[in-house]
Write a structure and sequence with these properties.
Blueprint lengths: L1 H9 L2 H67 L1 H9 L2 H14 L4 E6 H4 L11 H5 L4 E7 L1 H7 L3 H5 L1 E2 L13 E2 L2 E11 L5 E10 L5 H10 L11 E7 L2 E5 L5 H5 L3 H6 L19 H9 L4 E7 L2 E11 L5 E10 L1 H53 L14 H100 L7 H21 L13 E4 H19 L1 E7 L4 E4 L1 H17 L5 E11 L23 E10 L6 H4 L17 H11 L3 E7 L3 E9 L8 H25 L1
Parallel strand pairs: 13-15
Antiparallel strand pairs: 1-6, 2-5, 3-4, 5-6, 7-8, 7-11, 9-10, 10-11, 12-14, 15-16, 16-18, 17-18
């Protein structure tokens, strides 16, 4: 059904326009109704709860005033000359007469004087906790609860006056009680002292609130006077003893509250007051309110079911002279009149909005017809052009004076233009066929030329790639030539020195020495040919004192890009304070090799630790047992020889077999490695007079330790020392090779 309606609306522009126009009105009307209902409800509830809260405050204040008035009566009686004289003369009869007159004149239910010798004999459980305060001379006023035994003890007939028959009440807590025989009393206790300030007795008075109307009607007339409630509204006040209504002006049944004069009777000085039988005395409060107010001690401000109807209600617990909750005071008014006003307002607002929508819909419908008529004419012409393929129909003149007239003129002009362009296209078509034939022949010739150019481009590109490879190879050859030329020169110079130093002693090995020199010259010849591809700078060894920590920081700048690319971080722990004499560039080369090797050993992003400390003489015995974690405590005893640099990683580690060859030239475990980095680093450190050690555990990591002297132990002939270092390394390599062959 809904889908069919939607299809009908969707198939007609008129229906779409009508829906598009009415939809905002409908949504606005719905939103206005919802918002009006929400705000009306929220504002009304808020105002009603504020009013009933204020009514409760007035009722509680009125009850306090009644207590104060009773205290004032006793104060006046105790201070009267006649009463003081009768006390001095111990004229009990005159005292009783005066108290009787006061009790009757002030509408008190009991008034008595308790002398000090009688107070202890009176077994009043409500009075006993108050005696210490009375002995201190403190007057007391407030509410208290007296059982039937105490009522009879105070005065005969009070028990029957207080007795209330309980009535079954909806929503109340279930009970088996039929009669309420306790009484809630406004009680005042005033200590009476003689002229010496000694306590001679207590004036005790009280007004029983059970089965009374004076207090609740006084509060009601004060709070719910004429004009405070709408027509039909009933304002009520109630005093509860626990959950039982002992004094109230809530009607016993709905008939009274529904009577035409109910509002007048409750909200003005009326001619007919409700009798006790018409009041809901003996009914009980709902279980929900009792739990909230009496059990939890909270003030109820909300709607509640009272006897037989819903009321906007306020309940507050009543506290006796000992601080115990004994009952409640209630004020409230019927909810129905306000609900009627609320729904009436909503109905009137909805009716007004509906009327506005009907008028708006009628106007929109009429105007839509005027709008649709030109559109229908335009649509018919467009359909004819689309279906028949003819461009001869025209819209012509329209009866409107809006944008549709301009649209129709533009459409007719477009059809005229199309008709003229169609003729031009037909003429151009014939001309185009001739031109295409001419262009096709020219295009074939150009295509053949383009193919030739492509072949030439491919050949040129191949040559460029070959030249680029040769350039890279030349650059690499220049680097290798530079690295070989320096040690070749050192070998040649030191061989000459060796011959000069040995003199005649060199004759047994003269042939071998000459062979070495010839090979060195052969190397230099090859080097000279290689150096034609490069222009290496002249390199001079220089040694200066530096702080190793600064050297490491400068080196890290050189490798920072490579470390970032591998996602490797550096953790530094600098404890070295001694300076070292080094060749700055060579030591940087050693550090670069060690740091990059450590980063390459990591299988995933991680960190490399750099640790420096002073090299103490006592550390020499421990140099071969390096802590792989880099956290060993350096000794503070002995002289400082230099510094120790440790490069620590948590990578794959090095096997025991590979660890023996780690400093051998051309030994590498990397697919792209040359095997020269650690060998060159070892030679550089040894030429400085230092040492380099390695310790590794497979799967846990590797520690390289570099020992550098405060003053480098540099040989007077650095070339000779280089030769010796080379011979030593070669001898070590030969020995290991022989050992490997034997195994």
């Amino acid at each position: 059904m809904i889908w069919a309606l939607w299809q009908k609306i969707n198939s007609s522009l008129r229906n779409k326009l009508l829906l598009l126009t009415l939809a905002p009105l409908i949504l606005t009307a719905i939103g206005f109704v919802i918002m009006a209902a929400y705000w009306a409800s929220s504002y009304t509830d808020q105002q009603l709860y504020m009013k009933v809260r204020a009514d409760l405050s007035v009722a509680k204040g009125t009850l306090d005033i009644m207590q104060q008035e009773q205290l004032n009566v006793l104060t006046q009686l105790a201070g009267s000359y006649e009463f003081r004289t009768n006390l001095q003369l111990d004229n009990q009869r005159a005292i009783q007469v005066q108290m009787l007159e006061t009790r009757q004149g002030r509408q008190l239910d009991f008034l008595r004087f308790l002398s000090t010798d009688l107070i202890a004999d009176i077994k009043d459980p409500a009075l006993a906790p108050l005696l210490p305060r009375l002995y201190r001379g403190e007057p007391l006023k407030g509410l208290t609860v007296l059982d039937k035994k105490m009522l009879d003890l105070i005065s005969l007939g009070l028990e029957k006056q207080a007795q209330i028959s309980l009535t079954e009440t909806p929503r109340a807590i279930p009970t088996n009680r039929l009669i309420e025989d306790k009484a809630m009393v406004i009680r005042t206790l005033l200590p009476v002292k003689d002229e010496f300030g000694e306590l001679i007795g207590i004036l005790d008075s009280g007004s029983i609130l059970n089965n009374t109307t004076r207090a609740v009607d006084t509060i009601r007339d004060l709070v719910y006077g004429p004009g405070t409630l709408p027509a039909g509204g009933i304002g009520t006040v109630t005093l509860f003893l626990d959950d039982v209504r002992i004094s109230t002006n809530v009607p016993q049944n709905q008939n009274f509250s529904d009577s035409p004069n109910a509002a007048h009777d409750d909200n003005s000085s009326n001619k007919r007051q409700m009798s006790l039988q018409e009041r809901a005395i003996g009914t009980r409060v709902s279980a929900e309110v009792h739990n909230y107010v009496m059990t939890r001690g909270l003030t109820w401000i909300n709607r509640a079911f009272v006897v037989n109807d819903w009321y906007i209600s306020a309940y507050q617990p009543l506290i006796d002279l000992t601080g115990q909750r004994i009952g409640m005071i209630y004020t409230g008014f019927t909810e129905a009149p306000f609900s009627r006003i609320y729904y009436k307002t909503l109905f009137e607002s909805g009716s007004l909005i509906g009327l506005i929508m009907l008028i708006s819909g009628f106007v929109i419908l009429q105007r839509t017809r005027v709008l649709i008529s030109p559109l229908a004419r335009i649509h018919s012409v467009v359909t004819a052009v689309r279906d028949d393929g003819s461009i001869h129909p025209r819209i012509g003149k329209l009866d409107t004076s809006d944008e549709l007239v301009d649209l129709a003129h533009q459409f007719d002009a477009m059809l005229d233009l199309l008709e003229s362009r169609e003729q031009e296209i037909l003429q151009a078509h014939d001309q185009l066929e001739i031109t295409v034939e001419k262009r096709t022949s020219s295009l074939r010739n150009r295509t053949d030329a383009l193919k030739q150019h492509i072949r030439l481009l491919k050949t040129t590109r191949k040559k460029l790639l070959d030249n680029e490879k040769l350039a890279v190879l030349g650059e690499l050859t220049a680097g290798i030539a530079h690295e070989i030329n320096n040690p070749a020169a050192v070998i040649l110079g030191n061989m000459d020195l060796l011959v000069a130093e040995l003199g005649d002693a060199v004759e047994p090995a003269q042939e071998e020495v000459d062979m070495v020199i010839r090979q060195v010259y052969r190397i230099r010849s090859l080097i000279n040919n290689l150096l034609q591809y490069s222009r290496p700078d002249h390199y001079v060894d220089s040694y200066q004192s530096h702080q190793i920590n600064q050297v490491i920081d400068d080196t890290l700048l050189l490798v920072s890009h490579a470390l970032e690319k591998q996602q490797v971080s550096i953790k530094k722990s600098y404890n070295a304070s001694c300076s070292v004499q080094i060749n700055y560039q060579q030591i940087q080369q050693v550090l670069v090799n060690l740091i990059l090797n450590a980063s390459h050993s990591l299988t995933e992003p991680g960190s490399v630790q750099l640790y420096t400390s002073d090299w103490i003489e006592s550390d020499d015995a421990e140099k071969d047992s390096i802590d792989k974690k880099g956290a060993d405590n350096e000794s503070t005893q002995g002289n400082v020889k230099g510094v120790i640099i440790r490069v620590i990683d948590k990578g794959l580690g090095i096997s025991e077999q590979n660890l023996q060859h780690i400093f051998d030239p051309f030994f590498t475990t990397k697919k792209s490695g040359t095997g020269l980095g650690l060998s060159v680093s070892y030679g550089i450190v040894r030429r400085h007079g230092g040492d380099i050690k390695v310790s590794s555990v497979v799967g846990e990591g590797t520690v390289f330790s570099v020992y550098l002297l405060h003053r480098a132990n540099i040989s007077t002939d650095s070339k000779l020392e280089g030769i010796l270092d080379g011979l030593t390394a070669a001898e070590r390599t030969n020995r290991r090779s022989l050992a490997d062959e034997q195994t």
